[in-house]
Amino acid sequence: KNKKKNKMSSSQLSAKQRREYKELFNMLDKDKDGKLNKDDLETIMTELGMKPTARQIRDMITECDPSSSGFITFGNFISVLSSKLRNTSRSEDLLGAFERLDESKTGSVPSLELKAHLTKWGSPLTQKEWKAMLAEVNCAEGSLFNYRKFVASMTNTS
């Protein structure tokens, strides 16, 4: 149906959230020109102890800059940040479900045990869907299934 439904717009944010996002944006906007550019991103990432490559900076701007202007506006910043936070929440929900099977909290569960749960309970996975899950994390049936890697790949988080 409507793909924009998943995007959180600035009108869906509470006044408090909008103020917090604006405060963060203003803090990141080192040259105070109302937009974030590669220099702003590089400066803040360096201050945070990161050593971003030129490509990483360019990729960040590309992700947040649908008009290819070379900078990030506050509106685009809200949209991308909201999306990232939504993915983080979804990631935490999925991890929680897998962790119920992982009593020792190692990040992996026996794939045959997982298969028994996923192909018999709730909305059971088909054999094809099960094989796709294994392939997603390069897991052989019968070995340990790395659910943290799986969740990260499914939610685009790391």
Low-confidence stretches: 1-10
Cα-based radius of gyration, to the nearest Å = 20 Å
- Percent range for β-strand residues: under 5%
Structural class: mainly alpha
From the spread of the alpha carbons, the general shape counts as elongated
Number of strands: 2
Percent in helix: 55-70%
Overall pLDDT, averaged?
79
Q: How are helices and strands ordered from N to C?
A: HHHHEHHEH
Instruction: Work out the helix count.
Output: 7
User: What is the terminal separation in angstroms?
Assistant: 29 Å
Strand order of the largest sheet: 1-2
The largest pleated sheet is described as: 2 strands, antiparallel
Structure description:
It is a single chain. The chain is mostly helical. 57% of the residues lie in helices and 4% in strands. It has helices spanning 15-28, 38-47, 54-64, 74-99, 111-120, 127-136, 147-155, and strands at residues 108-110, 144-146. A two-stranded antiparallel sheet has the order 1-2. The longest helix has 26 residues, at 74-99. Mean pLDDT is 79; it is low at 1-10.
